[in-house]
């Protein structure tokens, strides 16, 4: 979190996320890097919520993710939880995303 929240405010701004992603993906994105980025946006949870996506991403990107992410079914799921891990893997595999 210190990389994206150096002032320890407990909030990751979109610009901090973009800066982090730019550093992390300087050469090539991987599913693992995308998952790590979503995990940061999700506050280290194994899922992300619609509200988090809409708060942290530009509207068009958030809606793209929301429309393509499947429901998260882990034991720690909350209503409306989305599975960013399967989404990230699908982006780098054979998928119709």
From TrEMBL:
SUPFAM superfamilies: EF-hand
All residue ranges annotated as the EF-hand domain in the record: 1-27
Protein's UniProt keywords contain Cell membrane: no
Gene Ontology molecular function terms on file: actin binding; calcium ion binding
Keyword set includes Repeat: yes
Keywords: Actin-binding, Repeat
Pfam families: EFhand_Ca_insen
The protein's name: EF-hand domain-containing protein
Lineage: Eukaryota, Metazoa, Chordata, Craniata, Vertebrata
């Amino acid at each position: 979190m210190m990389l994206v929240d150096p002032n320890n405010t407990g909030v990751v701004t979109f610009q901090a996320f973009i800066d982090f992603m730019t550093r992390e993906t300087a050469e090539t994105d991987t599913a693992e890097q995308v998952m790590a980025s979503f995990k940061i946006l999700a506050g280290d949870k194994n899922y992300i919520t619609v509200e988090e996506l809409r708060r942290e991403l530009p509207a068009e990107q958030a809606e793209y993710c929301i429309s393509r992410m499947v429901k998260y079914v882990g034991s720690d799921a909350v209503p409306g939880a989305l599975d960013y891990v399967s989404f990230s893997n699908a982006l780098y595999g054979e998928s119709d995303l």
